[in-house]
């Protein structure tokens, strides 16, 4: 039997094979064949690949105003280091020398990164395809505006923006607007009704195209927090029921599972933490929750600090939490990996850099 090279196979079969290759590996293959490069750049193939390819979840870390793609070993206890795979280099189009812009926040949705800059600009990037799109404001952006990337049920990508809450005593004064990638324009959709998103909780979590926050009925957090969702199909907010019965006033924090994306809630009470995963969330806000993990913090050797604004991820396969160190300005520890019976500290080779954010990332070839 004559051996056939893959480049001699029918195009449909080649597409079927390549659609199951992990994204990071596929990017490396682009330079090996002109035919493959044309195929990989095709929009139809990118969408097929996003549906069929294995979801190799990596991490995005924001360190000293720079964005890095990294991997983390969830098992090694001693000398565990962050492995930097690549850096996202965003050139400033307003600079004559194309200097890199300083990034102050990052949001993830379907392999796209929505970044806000220190000088209040907005840019969307796909680290794999190297696509970049600067989003111009309807009027202007402000320092504490709230942004969220998402998509509708018909796979139309959008950005939601809310005016900063800090300067308003009544939320009825606050508009929210939508940027549509199809029209490349903003439009005002409505006004906030009777809730605030505190500044320490203004990073939403994107799950299946929708975004969720912890919100409060007043600005000073004297009332209990609740889960607030934004549906990018209906372009409306909805309150989502939280798990469990709370006799005292616990602290809540949000996360997203790394494998099959689902919203998670950490309920922190004194030296105990319960992590719940939302198995279903209805359009009405009704939700079903399953307890994923319980950790007695007093049993852990290392002292860890958990709070409502902590930034963490949930790894279902290894049954652990991954979160950044709360004292990142004074500690060399970048991340903690916490399970029922373990606490692993993850350091970085560079003792100067500090991690201010860790975000789950699933690569995609889909173009902006």
Automatic annotation (TrEMBL):
Chain ranges of the F-box domain: 3-53
Database matches in NCBIfam families: F_box_assoc_1
Coiled coil: none
Highest taxon listed in the record's lineage: Eukaryota
Name of the featured protein: F-box domain-containing protein
Gene3D superfamilies named in the record: 1.20.1280.50
Pfam families listed in its UniProt record: F-box, FBA_1
Organism in which the protein naturally occurs: Arabidopsis thaliana
């Amino acid at each position: 039997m004559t051996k056939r090279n893959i480049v001699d196979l029918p195009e449909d079969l080649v597409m079927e094979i390549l659609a199951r290759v992990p994204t990071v590996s596929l990017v490396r293959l682009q330079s090996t064949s002109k035919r493959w490069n044309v195929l990989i750049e095709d929009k139809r193939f990118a969408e097929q690949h996003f549906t069929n390819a294995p979801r190799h979840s990596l991490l995005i870390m924001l360190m000293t105003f720079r964005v890095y793609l990294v991997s983390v070993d969830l098992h090694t206890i001693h000398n565990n280091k962050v492995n930097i795979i690549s850096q996202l280099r965003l050139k400033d189009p307003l600079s004559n020398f194309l200097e890199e812009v300083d990034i102050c926040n990052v949001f993830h949705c379907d392999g796209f990164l929505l970044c806000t800059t220190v000088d209040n600009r907005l840019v969307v990037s796909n680290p794999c395809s190297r696509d970049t799109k600067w989003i111009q404001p309807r009027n202007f952006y402000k320092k504490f505006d709230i942004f969220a990337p998402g998509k509708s049920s018909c796979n139309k990508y959008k950005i939601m923006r809310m005016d900063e809450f800090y300067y308003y005593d009544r939320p009825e004064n606050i508009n929210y607007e939508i940027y549509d990638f199809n029209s490349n324009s903003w439009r005002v959709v409505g006004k906030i009704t009777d809730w605030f998103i505190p500044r320490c909780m203004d990073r939403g979590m994107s799950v299946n195209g929708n975004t969720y926050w912890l919100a409060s009925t007043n600005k000073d957090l004297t009332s209990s927090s609740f889960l607030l969702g934004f549906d990018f199909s209906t372009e409306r907010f909805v309150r989502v029921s939280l798990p469990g019965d709370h006799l005292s006033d616990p602290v809540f924090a949000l996360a997203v599972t790394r494998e099959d994306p689902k919203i998670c809630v950490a309920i922190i009470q004194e030296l105990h933490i319960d992590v719940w995963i939302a198995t279903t969330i209805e359009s009405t806000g009704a939700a079903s929750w399953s307890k994923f993990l319980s950790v007695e913090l007093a049993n852990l050797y290392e002292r860890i600090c958990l709070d409502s604004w902590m930034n963490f991820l949930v790894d279902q396969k290894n049954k652990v939490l991954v979160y950044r160190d709360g004292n990142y300005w004074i500690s060399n520890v970048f991340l903690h990996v916490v399970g029922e019976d373990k606490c692993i500290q993850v350091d970085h080779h560079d003792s100067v850099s500090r991690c201010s954010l860790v975000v789950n990332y699933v690569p995609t070839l889909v173009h902006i």
